[in-house]
């Protein structure tokens, strides 16, 4: 049975542009740039008044305090095979590398991930050799590893790095940490990285998350964009317009029929949004498959304007761009398991970013911004402000006294600002083992929809969440092959 055709007036033989991209987040813009570089006429439609999607920087608390609305630390941005190939520095993007990428405070001391794998190993004492043997081969082959991992399911061209990662990734983060490390510091450091997968650490593929992000930290760093994460889409937009592309903001798309005639349509939306804007043209079977797509836990996020830096008890935390606050591996596992069971953790695992230690221009002189979030059940209506601030206060006594103002966003507010974050899910869908491969519906052709000429390019497609643009790049390649 042949695929249904695009609904009129799209693809009716009288195209006014070659491609329409809906959504001006990093993936939508990456798709547009990939198409425009091949000489196609591209227009991007964005519902919001400004571009950026999950990579925006705004004054959320007080005048002069620039906060990252969602993404902040961008290892997969600087380490992206596609974004890294673009001349984004010529369009205003500058990376800042904190002195220390990551710190994980404990009751005594902290686990520290330095950019140098040897310095990290030295700080982890008896677990140093195990850390070096686990991450060294991955970091040393980052370009090949990123190319293979940040792609849809395929036969690898260079299987070596992928096989090295797969040996550990086949395990759970909890199991791998216990088998490779003996100290609380190394286990907690590994567990905190794995918790970015928004899954209990006793589940797969949490070990893969830790291995990928840990390798990135040593290979390319965990940097931030000078001026905020919004500089990444701004640079992509500047590059796109230099290639002849066009971006129109304030253009809410509620139906494919509203789009200008085009040879291809790429949608930076999740499956449920696709159902809303194309449902009447989809077959019942495909609609059921899209409706079965599962969204993961939500996020509860706080932004603070501070009158001084966070007073971490562990000195090493005061030179780190990212702080993981959650205690030991068992405590992190308990917090993430509670979320998956539909409960907000009493002592949540908290991810903290403190950008103005390294980019002071984002706050008035002598002042600072900080950012933190924890995981909560999807659509959770409660308030984790006290729990998050209590966790930080435990490792940074006096923190609350430094707060000048705060911005609070639960899952509902996060979704209201970005429709792709369904129920506050910032990953574009559950990242369990099944949906890591069959994302959004099939591992065989993940970007194509059943409508000929219509493609998905959001984080609901491989390789999933992160400011890397690879979902958009691969969707653009699928569209180019058909064109």
Can you offer a commentary on this structure?
There is one protein chain. The chain is of the alpha/beta class. The protein has two domains: 17-55 and 228-295 and 429-482, FAD/NAD(P)-binding domain; 95-224 and 297-417, Polyamine Oxidase, Chain A, domain 2, CATH 3.90.660. The chain contains 17 helices and 16 strands.
How many β strands by DSSP? Answer: 16
Average the pLDDT over all residues and give the rounded result.
94
N-end to C-end Cα span: 20 Å
Helix count from the secondary structure assignment: 17
Low-pLDDT stretches are 8-13
Structural class: alpha/beta
User: Architecture of the largest domain in CATH?
Assistant: Alpha-Beta Complex
> Could you name the CATH class of the largest domain?
Alpha Beta
Please give the oligomerization state of what you see: single chain
Kindly report the CATH topology of the largest domain.
Answer: Polyamine Oxidase, Chain A, domain 2
Helix content: 25-40%
Report Rg: 22 Å
User: In one word, what is the shape?
Assistant: globular
**What's the number of structural domains?**
2
Order of strands, widest sheet: 7-6-12-13-14-11-15
Largest sheet: 7 strands, mixed
Strand proportion: 15-25%
Kindly list the characteristics that best describe this protein.
16% strand, 17 helices, seven-stranded mixed β-sheet, 483 residues, alpha/beta, FAD/NAD(P)-binding domain, 16 strands, Polyamine Oxidase, Chain A, domain 2
């Amino acid at each position: 049975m042949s695929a249904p055709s695009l609904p009129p007036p799209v693809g009716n033989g009288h195209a006014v542009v070659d491609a329409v991209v809906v959504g001006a987040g990093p993936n939508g813009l990456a798709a547009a740039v990939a198409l425009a570089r091949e000489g196609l006429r591209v227009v991007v439609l964005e519902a919001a008044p400004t571009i950026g999607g999950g990579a925006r920087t705004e004054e959320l608390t007080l005048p002069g305090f620039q906060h990252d609305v969602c993404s902040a630390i961008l290892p997969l941005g600087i380490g992206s095979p596609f974004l890294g190939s673009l001349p984004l520095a010529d369009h205003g993007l500058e990376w800042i590398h904190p002195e220390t990428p990551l710190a994980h405070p404990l009751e005594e001391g902290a686990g520290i991930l330095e950019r140098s794998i040897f310095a990290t190993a030295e700080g982890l004492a008896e677990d140093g050799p195990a850390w070096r043997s686990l991450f060294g081969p991955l970091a040393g082959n980052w370009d090949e590893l990123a190319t293979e991992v940040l792609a849809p399911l395929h036969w690898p061209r260079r299987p070596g790095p992928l096989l090295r990662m797969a040996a550990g990734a086949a395990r759970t983060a909890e199991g791998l940490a216990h088998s490779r490390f003996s100290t609380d510091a190394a286990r907690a450091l590994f567990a905190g990285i794995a918790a970015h997968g928004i899954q209990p650490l006793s589940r797969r593929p949490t070990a893969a998350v830790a291995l990928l992000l840990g390798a990135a930290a040593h290979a390319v760093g965990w940097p931030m964009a000078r001026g905020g994460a919004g500089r990444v889409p701004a640079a992509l937009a500047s590059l796109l317009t230099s290639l002849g592309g066009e971006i129109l903001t304030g253009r809410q798309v509620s139906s494919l029929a509203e789009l200008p005639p085009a040879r291809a349509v790429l949608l930076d939306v999740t499956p449920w949004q696709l159902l809303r804007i194309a449902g009447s043209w989809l077959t019942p079977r495909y609609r059921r498959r899209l409706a079965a797509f599962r969204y993961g836990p939500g996020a509860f996020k706080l932004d603070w304007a501070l009158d001084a830096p966070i007073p971490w008890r562990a000195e090493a935390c005061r030179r780190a761009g990212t702080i993981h606050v959650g205690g030991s591996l068992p405590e992190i596992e308990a917090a993430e398991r509670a979320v998956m069971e539909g409960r907000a953790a009493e002592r949540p695992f908290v991810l903290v970013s403190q950008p103005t230690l390294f980019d002071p221009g984002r706050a008035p002189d002598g002042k600072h911004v900080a950012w933190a979030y924890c995981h909560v059940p999807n659509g959770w209506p409660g308030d984790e402000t006290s729990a998050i601030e209590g966790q930080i206060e435990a490792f940074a006594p006096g923190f609350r006294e430094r707060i000048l103002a705060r911005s609070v966003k639960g899952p509902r507010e996060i979704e209201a600002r970005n429709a792709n974050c369904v129920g506050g899910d910032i990953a574009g869908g559950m990242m369990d083992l099944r949906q890591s491969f069959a994302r959004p519906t099939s591992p065989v052709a993940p970007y194509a929809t059943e409508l000929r000429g219509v493609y998905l390019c959001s984080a609901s497609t491989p390789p999933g969440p992160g400011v890397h643009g690879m979902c958009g790049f691969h969707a653009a390649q699928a569209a180019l092959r058909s064109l």
